[in-house]
From TrEMBL:
InterPro entries associated with the record: 6-blade_b-propeller_TolB-like, Arylsulfotransferase_bact, TAT_signal
Name of a matching Pfam family: Arylsulfotrans
Keyword tags: Membrane, Transmembrane, Transmembrane helix
Membrane-spanning intervals of the chain: 409-430
Name of the protein in question: Aryl-sulfate sulfotransferase
Domain of life: Archaea
Transmembrane found in the keyword field: yes
Signal sequence residues: none
Keyword Transmembrane: yes
């Protein structure tokens, strides 16, 4: 009888812990702010006159490209009017990456996107990823396809970035084949290419051939050089047609994570605007940084991290001195002023890129941190004074990065810990019940365990 009583007490304890955990998660879900892009999807079903403001006001249109990571709101091109009302929401594709304004237009953007399809759809023997380069008029919704490519479905298979050289030529970052090439959109010919294998060993970076370099960003510089982000090599490199890699100009080094750690979307700021400098989302280090070229070396001149930023993937310096930042796993797009304070923000899951129209492509209209005298902001997770960030501060970066990549936007890291605790209690309870069915435990002196066969 005493044994049954003790067993019942343990069961009640397990049940109480699970119920309390579920209630905690329910409250977190109910009180979490709805992602602005989720609201945008709903607003897109209304006429323009019926839409209301869903984002803070700004001076220009803000465009957000969402990777989405699955069938969820956010995998779209979303544009907000200056008054915060929705201008355009287009979720034709599974993923969107780079988005840039088209020079000479007020509301047209150039973007890269992808669909993941089965073998029959792409006319192959394996699953495929179809990447496209298109332009879209955000006012009318009209699109124009410039290029389409197909690659085997695998990690790191879809084009992430493209930059315009002139009216007929594009510079393309080809993740699938670890190369950069110049595409003539009129003749459809590749006029020049650089393969990373030319200068980098296959033993470095990610696993070859699946996501070896993850070349995720390219930029055509005013002097004709190409700046390229090799994410898995932790480096931003510079290329010149006819010469190739300019080794003495490289920013970062493989596994030198004090400088860069699997970065995204570096922007070059030339000398006439206070450079040469590179503003970059230092993703795995959970910060945005800027490096100035001084005496043939790169020196860090600015750093921003508020203790909650989680895997940022874009940063643009605006003409007013503010910086527009994409906090991908943090679920937000934000603008910080010259003091590092947040002055504008929307919530959104898995955003990849953001642009403020009328300010130039990426950081084209902005000045360097050094010339602006920007103040660095560096708040550690343990200093952020939130329970979730305190939990994150004691976990390895590899774990927090993976969890942040897949968790729902409403979940904090403490919610994840609670979920793991609920699972642990459930498994322990199930294990106890299975064990007790096989054995009868008598607690006396001496302890005896009799098989229950």
């Amino acid at each position: 009888m005493a044994e049954l009583s003790r067993r019942s007490a343990v069961r009640i304890g397990f049940a109480a812990g699970i119920v309390l955990g579920l209630v905690f998660l329910g409250v977190s879900f109910a009180t979490a702010s709805e992602a602005t892009t989720s609201t945008a999807q709903d607003q897109s079903r209304l006429s323009a006159s019926e839409r209301h403001s869903i984002a803070p006001p700004t001076e220009n249109v803000t465009v957000v490209a969402g990777q989405g990571f699955g069938d969820q709101p956010g995998d779209a091109i979303t544009a907000f009017r200056p008054d915060g009302r929705l201008l355009r929401y287009n979720d034709t594709y599974d993923e969107y990456h780079d988005v840039d304004p088209v020079e000479g237009t007020s509301h047209t953007v150039l973007y890269v996107a992808a669909n993941h399809v089965d073998a029959d759809t792409c006319g192959a023997t394996v699953k495929c990823t179809v990447s496209v380069i298109e332009t879209m008029n955000l006012s009318t919704g009209e699109t124009d396809r410039l290029h389409r490519s197909v690659a085997p479905r695998r990690v790191g298979d879809n084009t992430h970035d493209v930059d315009r050289i002139d009216e007929h030529r594009l510079l393309v970052a080809d993740i699938a084949y670890d190369r950069v090439f110049v595409l003539n959109t009129t003749t459809k010919e590749i006029e020049w290419e650089w393969e990373a294998q030319t200068d980098f060993p296959l033993s470095g970076g990610g696993p070859y051939p699946n996501d070896w370099t993850h070349v995720n960003d390219i930029e055509v510089l005013p002097d004709g050089r190409f700046m390229v982000s090799l994410r898995n090599q932790d480096q931003v490199v510079f290329l010149k047609q006819g010469t190739g890699l300019l080794e003495n100009q490289t920013l970062g080094a493989e596994d030198d994570h004090d400088v860069l750690y699997e970065q995204h979307n570096p922007d070059f700021i030339p000398a006439e605007r206070g450079g040469p400098a590179v503003l970059v989302a230092d993703s795995e280090n959970d910060r945005v940084v800027e490096y100035q070229r001084e005496g043939g070396n790169w020196t860090r001149t600015w750093k921003w991290s508020d203790g909650t930023v989680d895997w940022p993937r874009d940063a643009d310096r605006l003409p007013n001195g503010n910086t527009l930042i994409v906090d991908s796993n943090g679920g937000r797009v934000l603008e910080v002023n010259e003091s590092g304070d947040v002055v504008w923000q929307i919530d959104s899951k898995s955003v990849y890129d953001a642009e403020r129209l009328g300010t130039g492509d990426e950081s084209t209209g902005g000045e360097s941190a050094k010339s602006l005298g920007l103040q660095s902001v560096s708040v550690s997770r343990s200093e952020s004074k939130t329970l979730s960030q305190t939990v994150r501060s004691v976990l390895p970066q590899e774990i927090t990065g993976a969890v942040g990549f897949v968790k729902p936007i409403w979940m904090s890291f403490f919610d994840v810990v609670v979920s793991v605790g609920i699972l642990g209690l459930a498994l322990s309870w199930a294990g106890m019940e299975l064990w007790s069915r096989r054995h009868v435990v008598a607690i006396r002196s001496p302890i005896t365990i009799r098989g229950n066969r």
